[in-house]
Design brief:
2 copies of one chain form a homodimer. With 357 residues, chain A is an alpha/beta fold. The longest helix of chain A is centred in the last third of the chain and has 17 residues. Chain A binds a DNA duplex (16 and 16 nucleotides) through helix 2 and helix 4.
Chain lengths: 357, 357
DNA sequence: TTGAAAGCGGTACCAG
DNA sequence: CTGGTACCGCTTTCAA
């Protein structure tokens, strides 16, 4: 492996000094270097396939054009990887590189991950979580421009901007979709209390009823969990041995896995979906929602958009002018909400004709 | 954010030269620096919370203690993230940092990701894929110690070591589990042709029959796809309207999602699992296999072990002595196979008593 | 218009 | 045992 060409190599080949090379290649040649030399330099650089050494650049400039992304478990869990995908798209398009460190839910590793990244002089930091959650922001994140994606600064007075999905309107629009199909008795398997997303979606669920002038049945929302078995057992409780008049005509789920469990329960009970029962998912989980039988109608989380929005905001701060701090205290609400997207597939349909309500 | 302490700051505070600081802090103080000075230096370093600047170190040493991990879609897809988790564990424990770049299946980004990483002077590279597959190794990977995890050098004569799961014995042991339960008519939804894993698992499937002295029914293995709907439709074809005598008593699946589809089909048809039909998955996908109803018996992919094995091998080369190249040509088979693990849960059971075969 | 030199933060060699 | 100095690769200032 022969060594890479350096600016000195280029200078020698072009018969000029290193400084000239630097000036020309950084676009400040005009007015400083003779046109002729400029051409020779550019040609020499091309011939040697020269590109400046990023490490030397970092040492010199004290900026690395690297953004550190810390995640709780985005890499190692099956969820929400597209937040990073969206963020990385934006970073690359603006000439930045992202490096990802996953702490695998070990919060004691948060601080050290941040310190490691800071040590390596990242120009900015992003923290990304699986599922909306409060975050004890590692101290180090306050020392460089930083942003939160899918999590919220868990301090008395929040200091970091966050980008999150609009869960309330997600829950509301999902409910509206079902109301629009004529459903009036809708059950909601709303996930688990531990996630802040759950109550927000319930809130949207309820507000859709209110807005439609319908009574809200509080006893139709259940907090139990996020997995297939929870969906299955929840649905069995709602449907098995219950007279058709007492059964909900639709079940909304706080994620697609719950919906899988509900579909399974319906199959066991001989109920046809969506003819006898409509089922909604949430998340639009890749290769689950769209490949279920029937394919799930669901509320897609705007993962890529969230990542992109967060990275855009972060890079604006990194490259920004001096007065961004002042700005922030002024108009910036410290919060960006990205709307969810309704995806209609096959698991929802009109309320059964003879439905009693 | 006040600037971090440098070696010069420490030297001043301790009243010595930078060189002394360097020697002492790198353990080469004894015999070179007076005991007294050593103490002062160490104390000053502690007081200033000094740690050497990794960027300056990189520039100086031409080594960064960073390992670059390139993946096709491990970050952004829901699969195989634990390979990176296992690799990262090992790297951290040996004082290395990993940086991950995901190309999101855009193979034209492979080369540039590798070049970017190489530009930043990573000490080694690992390529990780979702699902076993052949890889057109980016040229750059040949310039530093490199290794492949879950993929195989797709060149006439392979140059890079790879770490892969032992799919043949995985397929065999899964089949043996079912044979041991008395099943003789076992169908196999074997994934899609496009993946090299599929034929290997089929091979294991067949070899289990041969080893048991049973005839192999080649018409019982199907290549169709990897998703829930494929499993569902495959199972319907095998079971729906087929007389019990003609039905397989067990269905093996090449991944857990196929198995979900099969369970769904069984529920539709009123078949009880595992009483009427045993179902096996593959992968032990997190929060799918263990939360299905019934929970899936499956063949777990050794993801963390693969990542750990690959990183161990890579770091040995990175830190290794001079003659590793020679070594390699000698005994090293360029391949590490990690065994899969049978996980028995609830979806498999003894063959139905009256079973005709 | 050009080149020499300093400095980013370290390490390592070599006189003293 | 100690401190001065060169060098890693690059940018930028300053004299010539």
């Amino acid at each position: 492996m022969q060594r890479k060409a350096t600016a000195l190599d280029v200078a020698k080949r072009a018969g000029v000094s290193r400084s000239a090379v630097s000036l020309v290649l950084n676009g400040r040649g005009d007015g400083n270097v003779a046109k002729e030399s400029q051409d020779r330099i550019r040609q020499a650089a091309a011939e040697l396939n020269y590109s400046p050494n990023p490490i030397a650049l970092s040492l010199r400039n004290q900026r690395t054009r690297v953004i550190g992304i810390v995640s709780d478990e985005v890499v190692t869990s099956p969820f929400d990887g597209n937040i990073i995908g969206g963020a990385d798209d934006v970073a690359r398009s603006r000439g930045f590189v992202t490096v990802v460190m996953d702490t695998e839910l070990d919060s004691s590793r948060d601080a050290s991950a941040v310190e490691t990244l800071l040590d390596r002089q990242v120009d900015g930091l992003m923290y990304v979580t699986v599922g909306l959650k409060p975050l004890d922001v590692p101290q180090g994140m306050l020392r460089v421009p930083s942003i939160l994606a899918n999590c919220i600064d868990n301090a008395p007075v929040p200091r970091l901007h966050h980008v999150i999905p609009d869960e309330v309107s997600g829950g509301r629009e999902a409910t509206e979709h079902l109301l629009g199909l004529g459903h009036r008795d809708i059950a909601f398997l709303a996930g688990a209390q531990s996630s802040p997303a759950a109550p927000l979606r319930v809130q949207g669920f309820q507000s859709a009823f209110s807005a439609a002038g319908l009574p809200v049945r509080g006893d139709r929302a259940f907090l139990a969990g996020w997995d297939i078995d929870t969906g299955f057992h929840g649905a069995m409780k709602l449907l098995d041995g219950v007279s058709p008049a007492e059964r909900p005509t639709a079940i909304m789920c706080a994620n697609d896995r719950l919906a899988v469990g509900v579909v399974l329960a319906a199959a066991r009970l001989g109920l046809s979906v969506p003819r006898d029962l409509s089922i909604m998912g949430y998340d639009d989980e890749f290769r689950i929602a769209n490949t279920m039988v029937p394919a799930l109608t669901t509320m897609a989380l705007p993962l890529r958009e969230m990542g992109a929005a967060a990275m855009t905001k972060l890079l604006d701060a990194v490259e920004g002018t001096v007065e961004e701090e002042a700005d922030q205290d002024a108009g910036d609400p410290l919060e960006t909400m990205v709307p969810c997207r309704l995806v209609i597939r096959e698991s929802t349909g009109p309320v059964p004709p003879g439905s009693p309500k």
